[in-house]
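Reading is simple: the token line describes the chain's fold. The lines below illustrate.

. . .
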Amino acid sequence: MEAPAVLLVMGLGWKFYDADDYHSEENRMKMGKGIPLTDQDRIPWLCSLHNILLRDVASGQHVVLACSALKKMYRDILIRGRSDVPLEVDESAKERLAGEQLLVVYLCGPFEIISRRLLQRKGHFMPPELLQSQFSILEPPSGPENFIQVSVDQSPLEMADAIMEAL
């Protein structure tokens, strides 16, 4: 778990999910070979994450989800799901999730800082060489999305404080 997420979860007492833990083995192997994921690769993963969020909302649980939802379409799937994918919980949970005050925390920073951090990460299936492909498709959140922007050039404590203040 990333340092800001640890501080955030500890400060709020909420459940934490790292979206990377839910990638299919095929996606992990593809990234491990240095091949960027396509929308078609990501959509089933995002739908699974949506179902996790639905399940937790249905049970009254608050959640922090660390996820590289690089495009608006990906964030929309996380929040609203897809009509062509069956729900794993009742329809009322989906309505509550769409009506909840969901906050996207956009951790932004220059390529160099993020690249340096990726190079320090050990044992992850995504090689740092794929970072450029992620920057290439990045669609930063904008209105009317409910989001805050937090710079990664702050300390983890400063980032967690900024997020908690926004909540």
Residues 159 and 165 are 10 Å apart (CA to CA).
